[in-house]
Each structure stands twice: as structure tokens, then as C-alpha cells.
Amino acid sequence: MASRNIVGLEMADIKSNDGNDHYTSGLDIPVATRSRRSTLANSNPNNNSSSSNSNTWSHHSGDSSTWVGGGSAVSEEWPNSALPERHSFLESVPGSGPATPIDIDSRPTSPCFYQGNGSSQSHHSLAPLMKPHHTSKSTSGLSSEYTFTEDSIAHLHKRDDVEIFKGWRRKVSRFMPFLMFGNTFLYFAYLGLRIACVIMAQNSQNTIYAGAWAFLAVEILVAIPSQMHNFLLMCGLKKRQRPKLRLRGEDGPTVDVFVTCCGEDDEIVLDTVRAACDQDYPRDRFRVIVLDDGKSAGLEAYINQLAGVYENVFYIARPKFPGVPHHFKAGNLNYGLEQVDLMGPGEFMAALDADMIPERDWLRALLPHLLIDPKMALACPPQLFYNTPVSDPLAQSLNFFVHVIEPIKDALGVAWCTGSGYIFRREALTEIGNFPTGSLAEDVATSTMVIGKGWKTSYIHEPLQFGTVPEDFAGHLKQRTRWAVGTVQTATKLNFCLYGDSVRSMTVAQRLLGALYAMLGIFTVLLTLSMFVVPIVLAWGKPLVAFSTVTQLRWLIWGASASVACNRLCEVAMSSPSGYHTSQRDSRSQFWMSPYLALSIMRAFILPRWLGGNVVAFKPTGSLGSALNERDAQNRKSMPRRLFTILFNYMAIFHFVFVYFTLAAVAVTSYKVFFAPDTSLRGIFIGLTIHVFWPPMTFLFLVSSLWTPIAYAIDPPVMPEREALLQRDQKTGIAHPTEASKRIAFSGQEVWFEFLYTVSTNRKARSHHAGPTNLGAHQAGRFGHLYQACSRIPGDRTARIPSSVTRRNFQARLSSIWTIGSCLSCAKSEPMPPAANYCEHYSHCSYIHDTAIASAVGYVQVTDLSRVKTSPDV
Q1: What's the CA gap between 369 and 29, in Å, rounded?
Q2: Partners of 726 in the beta sheet?
Q3: What angle do the packed helices 210-234 and 580-592 form, to 10 degrees?
Q4: CA distances from 786 to 103, 696, 783, 812 (A)
Q5: Which helix (H) or strand (E) holds 846?
Q6: Pairing relationship of beta strands 735-737 and 3-6 according to DSSP bridges
Q7: How many CB atoms lie within 10 A of CB 738?
């Protein structure tokens, strides 16, 4: 074990061995025993710069050394060839604004020491970095003196999202709240009609329609997420007014920028650190501190080399001890805050995820929002990505959330910290005791607590950072399940934001929205359970809807048509900021991710340990041996291996079984209806509608959604190397995403999904045309036959329908009394007149059935049904 100097104490490094892949257990060391990593090498990884740059630099001790990459004698060289573009078939998605222009020639390519600086990065602690109230421009200390004036801020536009959200998209979005009101009203009106029809049918037949109730329950559970979002989108009536601002001048408030990492590739972390150091901001007014929970020796060496170019960059790795909680990312950030507190903190702190590359004007864009309002605790930009695969099959882009949901929450004063790129006011953090521990979603917990203390938060809707999405299926599952568990953890600790000291200063809207998102996470458990009911109800063969008269059926079809039509309009309006296909992918993702989220939440909060409880996030079963590399066309595993891994190790077998049994149930029930004897074409159509294809054909949307993991395993998207998505400065090594990589490309797969969705939602219109003349599920096509048969019953002229009674009158009378009954012979339940005792499919009693119908409508009096039954003429 290597010893090191920690504020005058000799201690031994002890590495954690708990096996977690992120922020494994460790100890929150007391402040007095903490220090930064001591040894700071003096080597330059970028010695391929122009000849004007010397390779030998003067240090405070007078020593000189040659800069080398990673502590070796081999220099790091960037390829000189042009980087290839991403792909050609692109559809631009709002939210990927242009990068800040980079003036390469204006940046230093050699170590830049400000006049008066008597120190370099070879220090044993951060102490020389901080000198409170130091007024010089030395980078050895951050001055706390900054005078804010209105002239210091430039107002570029009255809307911060002017680059993202403009033109017809903004015009369409104006109708979104009104459409949501209409959609919600129509849905609940239709829901009430469905319930009333079932109750009336039960009262008339004195029976319980279990199939109709079960199907209704599934529809309600499936619709809950969309209705919750409707409630949130209705709040869009409150206009959001957040201007686009920039901080002017060569002075500014002091900022500590933390880059948190834990086991990521060194190249990814270094790209983030270089971009953070290269901010268009006074160099002596901010410092970049790498908080490495992975204790990477290679990363430490690279950061120490980079310190020769940017003397405001530092590396810290906290000690962690086995078996002692260290509180994940929140503990890492708190450790960094405590370290800079020892020497004097900056007025603000900012944080970047290891893979999030900030734009050059990141600090200048966010700080004005904190300076103009002293009660503003947080300014946070959206998380955007530059490696989203073609068609985004797993809905990894978050575009719907960052471009639709977050701006509305910001208008209501509930802007969340989205985890990266944010800037916090240290005063607000100190008031809540820094980042709260005990939650995987420390960002949500922190922003919620500062709101509860009466501070304000802001969402800056500008493209100011670009990161990477998980590159494989496993990484995506771990990320999303960790978010879900963390959100519920935060909600339970804060009493769902409804009461308690932590949320005392919240408004009613802030409390409701806080509870809403927590309930959405818990709701995934109910949604997953309801999915099991779908194939059971379809295979049951019972009518999915119940009604006692054709008038009720007509109103049901009208109600369904109006509800779906309005819902489609709402989808177009609410997806206008993020893109239509992105919004549809996000909707499908809610359903296929539900089993994974539900399992993780149940393990974390419900199941005991002996049943697999207390697992932080989703963990695959079995041993994978090696990564699938499914997005690497050259190194990916074979399709059988991918299928086996995703089906069994990642438990997508649930999705496969659901799809298989649902489609089998549809086929069996359709066969029973289609091949039933004595059924006309119209009867078949109506029978299929109420037994299988009742609009909006929920099963079809669920099947297409839950097929996503299997389709991904069969045909995963191909992505180029990360370097091909970046535009790198060969002199400094600083990289920013290319314009093409910021956009999402779409393929023909979207056409197929849209076809399925259109077919399922447009079926209402087709059913509507057949609905007004429906007499029942199987009897609709028999009207003409019944009229003719009952008009010529032999042997009893009183049993014949008078010639003055037209076919139209007969139909109207029949429609008004039609109910649902059970055949005495085969016990089949279906629509029939009250006087009928046998169903039309039972050949031995069909004559009695026909005559009973004539008697029921009141036009005839049949006294001897046995003569009618044996008559060969009927």
C-alpha cells in the first residue's frame, strides 16, 4: 500500500472491494484528514503542437522536465486525417443547436502563467489555490470580490430557446394546453359512458360482464401515464419567460467546476476536462477539479500533465473503505465541496458528468440567471447527446423530457437539476447541508430540497453541453432503473413533497408535480401487472365491451372516435418541440421499460432480501463473459448470442412471452368469431370489433412496444467510433461534437411503427360507419332474414308481420329492445331480444329464435311455436 501525505498525516490508501460498478462503498472522511492527491507530474501530452511551443517549462522550484503523455516517453498524437461524417440520412431534431464558434488561434497551446503567479500544479494540497479576498489576477487563488452591474449582462433574446424552438413548431405548441383540456374531458366522458353501459347491461341481464370489466381496467391503467402527462401539459398555459443572457467582461464570480467520474475511459473524461478548462471565462475566476471515485492512476497522470497547460485544473480521489457507505455520487461531490471549503470556496459550484462536453460559453450563459436574482439557487441546461444511434430504438435521447416537460416545470417553478452542466449557489447548498445522501438521484433530491427551503431554480433551455448515451442494452437498463429507484427514494424521504419541514416553502403546484413524478415511478408496478391481463382477456372470448341496445353501441363508437381523434392531435402538438418520431419512441419506451423499472422498485422497496430485495438497480442474471458490442459492426456478437443474452440474462423473455401469447389469443378468438356458422359479413365485422379489435386496439400498441428489446437484439443500430463524432483541435486536443452527430437520424423502421399505430387508432372511424345499424354482435346481418321469415310463418296467419310494417319500422323496433342474453341450449352470451331463449348458431332452435324475435317486437302473436319449429318452409 502506497502511503501519502494528507494534511501532515501519514495514511495508507485502502481501495474499496465491494464490487459495485459506480460509487462503491466507502467512508465519509472527517474534514481534518482530507487532502488532494500529492504528486503532480510535469508532462505534456500534447507535444505535437507548433514549433513555437517549447517542451521545457519553468517551475517554481526551478526544475525543468519534458512533457510526456500518460507518464511514458511516448507522446500522444491525434490523427491528422479528416474525421468522417456520421451518416447522411438525417432528420434534424430541435435541441441540437450549433456549437459555439471556436477560435483556435486565440487559445494558449503552451502553459500560461499569469503575472504574479509563483506556483505551479506540483502542490501537495489545494491550499495555495485559495486565498480569500485576494485581488490579484494570480491563478494561485480565486478572488471572492466581484461587483455585479446590469451592464455586465448582455440580453441576446427574450427567449432562451430561440435556437431550439421556433417557426411552425412554436405556433403549433400554443394549442397544446387547450387540446390537452379537450382530450382529458373526452377521455373521462368516454370512460364514464363505458362504465354506464356495462352497468346497464348487467342490470338488464342480471349477470356480471367480467371480461368487459377486466378490459376496462387494463385500458385505464395503460392510460394513466398519458393522462398524468396531460395534466402536466395543461400547465403550459402559464407562459415561460426565460431570456437568453450572456455575462460580459473579463471579470466574473468565482466558480468551482467539479468533473465527477468513476471508471469511465480516460479519453472520455479528458475530453470533458479539456472543454471545461477551455471556457470563455477569466482563467483566474474558476478552477476545474476532477473528482475520481475510480482512483485511476492513468487519469491522475493525465490531469497532472494537463495542469501544465491549464494551471486551474486539479485532481482529487477520496479514500474509501470496505463495508462503509460512501453515498455514491453525492458523497463524491460532498467530498470535493469539503476540500475547497478548507481553503475558501468559490461563490458558485458547477458539476459535469464525466462524458458531458460543455460548450465554450457554458459558464457565461448560466451565471447571469443566478446573478440577476439573489434567490436563484440553480441554473441547469438540458442534457443533449452526440452519439444517439439511428432511429434511437431504445429512446435514449431524452428529447421529449428536456424539450417539453422541463420547460413546463420551469414555468411552474419546479425546474430540476438534471445531473450535469448545472451551477449551484454555494449559499443555497450550504443551507441544505450540501448534497443529500441516501438517494441515487442526488440531483433531483438537491433541487427539490432547495425549492423546499424557498430558493428558486431555473432551467436554461440552450444547447450548452453534449454527452454520450450508454452504448449497450445493459448500460441503458442500469441507467434508467437507477434513475427510477433514485426518484422514488427521494420521494419517500421527502414525503412525496406533500408535507414536512423539507418542503415547507413549496407552492401547491410544486408539491403536486413532485408527487406526480414519484407516483409515475411507482405506477410501473401496476402497469406491469395489468399487462398480464391483456392476453387472458383476449383469449377468454368474452365481449370487451358491454351494451344493452344498439343506441348504446353507437354512442360508444362515437365516444371512442372523438377521444382518439383528439388524442392524435395532442400527440402532434406536444411533440412539436422534440420531434414526432422521438415522442412516439418515448411513449413506447414507457411500456417496454415498465417490467424492468417495476422489478427494480420492488427489489428496492418491497421484496425482502431473501427474495432478491435491496438491489440498487437492475442487474442481469448469469455471467455474460464479455460485452455484446452490439453497436460495433466488426466486433459484435452473433445474433443467436445477442438474442440469448437479452432474452435470458436481461430477462426480455417476459416481453417475448407477452407478445407470443397476446398474438395467439387474438388469432384464436378471431377464428371463433370468423368461422362461426350462420354469420354474415357484417356480423363477422362487429364480432371481431367487440371481441378483439375494439378501438384503439390497445393490444397492438403494447405488442409493438414490448417487441422493442427483441427487435434490438435482432438488428441493433451500428455506430461509428466516438472519435468520428467529434471535431478535434489538433493543437490543443480539445474536441466538440460535430453538427451531424448532434442530430438523430431515422430509418424505415419508423414507417412500420407509424403504420401499426395509424391502423390501430384509425379503426374507430371504420367501426363508426357500421355502428349505427348494428343490432348486436352476431345478429346485425340477420335483419333481412328475420323480416322475411317472420312475414311468412305458415299455419298461423296471426303470426305473420302485417304488410303495412316496413323493413325500416321492423328494424327500428328491434333495435330499441335489443339486449344481451344467454342461450338456454348452449349457454352462449350474446346480444338477443328479451323474448329469445336460444342463440342463432344453435340449429335446432333457430326457427323458434326467429319467431320469438317477431313476437318480441310486438307485431305478431305466436301461440304455437312447435309448429313453427318443425315447418320446413321457414
Answers
A1: 34
A2: 737
A3: 130
A4: 86, 33, 5, 13
A5: helix 846-856
A6: unpaired
A7: 18
For residues 485 and 496, what is the distance between their CA atoms, to the nearest angstrom?
14
Please state the φ and ψ torsions of residue 422, each to the nearest 5 degrees. -85, 160
pLDDT score of 652: 96
* CB burial readout 674-710, b (16+ within 10 A) else e: eebeebbebbbbbbbbbbbbbbbbbbbbbbbbbbbbb
Non-local CB neighbours of 631 within 8 Å, separated by 6+ positions:
389, 471, 472, 716, 717, 718, 719
- Helix 508-540 and helix 210-234, axial crossing angle in degrees, nearest 10: 150
- Evaluate whether 266 touches 26 at the Cβ level (below 8 Å): no
Q: How far apart are CA 226 and CA 550, in angstroms?
A: 31
Residue 646 is given by DSSP the state I
Q: Determine phi and psi for 153, rounding to 5 degrees.
A: -120, 130
For residue 230, the one-letter residue type is: N
Length of the chain: 874
pLDDT for res 467? 97
456, β-bridge pairs: 376
* Cell (9 digits) for 107: 487559445
Pairing of strands 153-157, 244-247: antiparallel
CA pair distance 10, 272, nearest whole angstrom: 33
Round to whole Å and give the CA distance between 472 and 466. Answer: 18
How far is residue 870's CA from residue 409's CA, in Å, rounded to a whole number? 74
Whole-number Cα distances in Å, 335 to 27, 108, 327, 438, 489 = 10, 31, 11, 15, 22
| Cβ 563 vs Cβ 183: under 8 Å | yes
Select from 681, 712, 806 the least CA-distant residue to 471.
Answer: 712
User: What are the phi and psi torsion angles at 470 (to 5°)?
Assistant: -55, 140
Q: Give the integer Cα–Cα distance in Å for 468 and 474.
A: 15
Instruction: Give the orientation angle of helix 580-592 with respect to helix 550-574, to 10 degrees.
Output: 120
DSSP string of 260-271, one letter each residue = EESS--HHHHHH
Q: What is the pTM of this model?
A: 0.73
Q: What are φ and ψ of residue 7, in 5° steps?
A: 50, 50
Cell readout for 217 is 381496467
C-alpha cell at 429: 447548498
Return d(Cα 318, Cα 291) in angstroms, integer: 8
Question: What's the CA gap between 276 and 310, in Å, rounded?
Answer: 10
Which pLDDT value is given to residue 315? 97
Tell how strand 465-467 and strand 384-385 pair up: parallel
DSSP string, 474-509: HHHHHHHHHHHHHHHHHHHHTGGGSSSGGGTT--HH
List the Cα angle 666/778/530 in 5-degree steps: 35
In angstroms, rounded to a whole number, what is the distance separating the alpha carbons of residues 317 and 581?
42
Backbone angles phi, psi at 776, to 5 degrees: 165, -175
Query: Cell numbers at residue 717, please?
Result: 443500430
Tens digit of pLDDT for each residue in 283-312?
999 999 999 999 999 999 999 999 999 999
- pLDDT given at position 36: 35
What residues of the chain score a pLDDT lower than 70?
Answer: 1-144, 236-237, 615-626, 677-679, 747-874
